[in-house]
Amino acid sequence: MGMTTPPRTLAEALRARDDESLAGLLRARPDLLTPVPGDITQLATRAGTRASVVRALEHLDRFALQTAEALAVAPDPAPYETLLGLLTGDGRDDGEHRGDADTAIGDALPAALTTLREQALVWGEDDRLRLVRTARELLAPSPQHPSPTGLGPTVAEATAGMSPGRLQDILATAGLPATHDPVSAVTSLSALFTDRARMGELLDTAPAEALSVLDRLVWGPPYGEITPNPTPPVKWLRDRGLLLPVSTRTVVLPREAALHLRAGRAHRVPEPQPPAVEAVANRDPQAVDSAAAGQAFLAVGTVEELLKSWNGGGPAILRSGGLSVRELKKTATTLDVSEPVAAFWVELAYAAGLLASDGEADERYAPTPAYDDWAELPAQDRWVHLATAWLAATRTPGLVGGQDAKGRALSALGPDLDRSAAPEVRHRVLALLAALQPGTAPDPETVLARLRWERPLRGASASAGDTTDLRSRIALWTLNESELLGITGRGALAAHTRALLDSGPAEAAALLAPLIPEPLNHVLLQADLTAVAPGPLERPLADMLCALADIESKGGATVYRFTPGSVRRALDAGQSAADLHAFLAAHSRTPVPQPLSYLIDDVARRHGHLRIGAASSYVRCDDEAVLNEILADRRSATLRLRRLAPTALAAQVDPASLLEGLREMGYAPAAESAEGDVLITRAGTRRTPPRTAPVPVPEGPPVPDATLLGAAVRAIRAGDTAATVVRKDPADTPPASSGSLPRTTSAETLATVQAAAMTGSALWIGYVNADGAASQRVIAPVRVEGGFVTAYDHTADEVRTYPLHRITGVAELADDATS
User: Fold this and answer.
1) What are phi and psi of 251, to 5 degrees?
2) In whole angstroms, what is the distance from residue 613 CA to residue 610 CA?
3) Residue 240's Cα: distance from chain center in Å?
4) Of 724, 810, 765, which Cα lies nearest the Cα of 42?
5) Cα separations (Å) of 277 from 272, 439, 638?
6) Across 136-140, 239-243, 610-614, 676-680, which has the greatest mean pLDDT?
7) Alpha-carbon dihedral of residues 189, 195, 200, 202, nearest 10 degrees?
8) DSSP alpha helix (H) spans, 455-530
9) Cα 585 to Cα 162, 596, 603, distances in angstroms
């Protein structure tokens, strides 16, 4: 759809685009698609709204934004050469490397303009480039919002309220011919500031102090405050119009003068090329993969340990939501990590759908049913599940411990941790790492510099007093979390992560599997009541060993210690002494040490000798001497025991407290049921009801797929046809005005529709639906019968049936209207 004349409006420029170009605009700015515009004019209007333009500007890279900023201070419209001159300068400040920089700008400018045109921020041919009005208002200078370029208003804008007499004084002092026409005076002063030779002669006569004042203002901000009696250098500049008054105490350096002092450049440092991501180390790719795989295996184990510790019901939920500081510290101690790292693992388990609230009245966190399915997967598949959840999550653990906008503390698993930019930043950081050679560890500062170049406006969201914007903080957190999760190894991207990003979970799991150690089915028992697991253990063995012993240290090998308490825990879970001996004998590569056998037998001999039940609670024992010993012990005073019978004592505390109290006194009691049977305390298996993983908070409207884009473009084209088509009005009716519905009688409507159905021609109709909403449509009638017309609706791009009595009127189209 070519144009023979330059477009006069943005709508005309969009109308001249082909369908692929329109689809590209909607893909780059998906907010324009909700709802689908009725025609091109609506699309252009929506593309010029403030909210949409701000969102589009935020997605520009630094050089595209610098190009838009230069157009905002250029004449409207501006030819390509003027824009190029604002970015490269007029050549008066050429330095050693200036020529190379100007060449790079010239090479990059066409691509930047293409980006601005594709996003409908700039329109017009190269000889008449126009920045959309809203973008010009956002980027142009004003006292309230200085320009990003640091330039002030033009001479015409700055002198708009100045008296003619004051203008004459400035002209006379500057050595310009007097004129009584204010417009001519402004033109004369502007011509002086844009004339290189005359401006140079004027500045050669300036005092050195006056030039120092200009140096402070030239790169912005261009506004300065003066006293009622300014200093001689300031007075010299003000008298010659180099400083123009904004108010009684404020002056501004006009744009034309500043551009002369800048050698014609709108920006001090144009950045046509993105900064390179530099390497700090080049490592062996195999070492990187091995380190990342080891950390991935540790990550899976850490999440599993966290959820096991909350297996019987985790910490209570704060009234405002999330974990308390005390519970986070407790979790960090359990995992043997710092609190920020503990917050990361907790948030990761939550994002992966393995952890949620149980929904009870006394609300607590607990593993979800999905955790049981996840725990049965091979280690590589468990890691892929965690990594995929992390990549898509908008929850940002790095914010934990900070404050929200209202000064409230942000807690782990609490509200207000979602940041919609997080997934995009994570993917971008990993993409930058993937672009490096395998084994290359990047310099974090160069990664941040690259991200700031790609999205320079996002830094405006940094909070007061914070020198690092949110995107940069998320990027730093991404690098740290990648190392914790096994995404990277020793700072470089691992091969299984590259596969996850490029090929998907299956390929990533296949590459990771050979690097993860095979689980073992044995331990090494030692005489000091410890067991050493030389590697990861099979799940049943690990679960049983955790019940029988306490983990003393972790690492390449895990050390378990057997204690009376840990053995009693296994006995409480229903194991007998014979079961424990058989278990250790079956899974130890070394003989079972005699001290360990004695420990098990000793605890088992005393286990259950005392019985605890509910009275409030009671103690039952066949040995009266033991009960006498308990009553005589001063430490039992807090239990408030009294004898009920020779073999039974009653207590005023609950069974759990009685059990704990007697164990602290050195006994090994067992709880019993109302029937007198020993209660078996099995490993907790508290689960929440079925829960889905938290849904990431999207950053603006989602990017539409190709099917939706195609349908939207067809609908916009059809609506535009209906709104702009050339119509033939019947001779006996007045011409239809733009936007009005055609009006014909019922007989004329029927006759025209029947004729169109016979000839296969298209018609323009006015239609009112059952809700009373009126619209214009372009239809091609196929059949007319029973008071209905069946036609192909160009506006909706489908065949529809319309009641004739709802058609307000019809008009024929020009011969080439639908061609």
Assistant:
1) -125, 165
2) 10
3) 51
4) 724
5) 16, 14, 67
6) 239-243
7) -20
8) 470-485, 495-502, 505-512
9) 100, 11, 18
Backbone torsion region of residue 733, taken as left when φ is above 0, otherwise alpha when ψ lies between -120 and 50, otherwise beta = beta
Residue 422: which of 390, 454, 461 has the closest Cα? 390
CB within 8 Å of 588: residues ≥ 6 apart? 522, 523, 524, 525, 531
Q: Is 591 exposed, middle or buried (0-12, 13-18, 19+ CB in 10 A)?
A: exposed
CA 493 to chain centre: 21
Residues in the chain: 819
pLDDT of residue 666: 85
Cβ within 8 Å of residue 318, ≥6 positions away: 324, 411, 414
Residue 676 main-chain phi, psi, to 5 deg: 90, 5
Structure tokens at 526: 């030692």
How much is the average pLDDT of 582-590? 90
Q: How far apart, in whole angstroms, are the C-alpha atoms of residue 416 and residue 395?
A: 8
Of the candidates 175, 148, 170, the one whose C-alpha atom is nearest the C-alpha of residue 158 is 170
Burial bucket for residue 627 (CB in 10 Å: 0-12, 13-18, 19+): buried
The torsion defined by the Cα of 258, 259, 261 and 265, in degrees rounded to 10, comes to: 130
Residue 571 CB neighbour total at 10 angstroms: 26
Residue 202: strand, helix, or coil: helix
- For residue 556, what are its two tokens? 């390449």
Cis peptide before 77 (omega within 30 of 0): yes
**Would you say 344 and 335 are in contact if contact means Cβ atoms under 8 Å apart?**
no
Asked whether the CA dihedral 327, 330, 332, 338 is positive or negative, the reply is positive
Q: What is the pLDDT of residues 367-404, one digit of tens each?
A: 999 999 999 899 999 999 999 999 999 999 999 988 88
Q: Burial, 257: exposed, middle or buried (Cβ in 10 Å; 0-12, 13-18, 19+)?
A: buried
Other C-beta atoms lying within 10 Å of the C-beta of residue 607: 21
| Local structure of 735: helix, strand or coil | coil
DSSP-assigned letter for residue 668 = -
Tokens 């004349």, residue located: 5
What six digits make up the tokens of 680? Answer: 């078996």
Q: Where are the beta strands (DSSP E) in 187-258?
A: 223-225, 244-245, 250-252
**Contact by Cβ (8 Å): 568, 607:** yes
What is the C-alpha to C-alpha distance for residues 329 and 339, in angstroms, rounded to an integer? 6
- Reported pTM: 0.76
